[in-house]
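Entry 12.
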Amino acid sequence: MRWDGAGIAAYQWSAIMIIIAMILALFFVFSKRTIAPALVIAWALWGIRASQGPRLALLEKLTTLGVVLILLAVGFAWINSYRLGRQNSR
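Predicted 3D structure (tokens):
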């Protein structure tokens, strides 16, 4: 199969899709207040990093950044919901 991505290289399309996935994950965490889809996206990014990272430094850095940002966002949301829960129970 020959790649014909509107003049954009395959690795550049991958980078664009990784960025979109990161944005979606952060949207789920901060707007929808749900962490499960964000964790699935982080897991997928980790898999992409494992399979494509050694070959392409850009994808390795992007996926690592994505996983770290998503996990930080999930941790922040979890801590914030815990604090809100404790305040509401008083």
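Annotation: Helices lie at 10-30, 36-52, 57-88. The chain has one domain: 10-88.
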